[in-house]
Specification:
Blueprint (H helix, E strand, L loop, with lengths): L2 H36 L12 E5 L4 E6 L7 E6 L1
Antiparallel strand pairs: 1-2, 2-3
Length: 79
């Protein structure tokens, strides 16, 4: 190979490497933008309707009725 041919081959390699680097940077920036935009979504709200019962012991349970107000009304019942 002559010196001119080597220089041309190196220039082609540099062009290809530059293209690969630009593509990799574009993928990183695009992935970062996608991740940032997906984090801005509001969380899903869960609304309970009806009663929720929790047994504390064998004789006592706590009942929360969500149908009457936003936060529900608590009552403690003995069995």
């Amino acid at each position: 190979m002559q010196a001119d041919e080597r220089i041309i081959a190196l220039e082609n390699q540099v062009r290809q490497l530059r293209g690969v680097v630009y593509l990799a940077c574009a993928l990183v920036v695009g992935g970062g933008l996608f991740a940032a935009s997906s984090m801005q979504e509001k969380p899903t709200k869960v609304q309970l309707v009806g009663e929720v019962e929790v047994s504390i012991t064998d004789r006592v349970k706590v009942v929360n009725d969500f149908s009457s107000s936003r936060y529900g009304t608590f009552k403690i019942e003995e069995k």
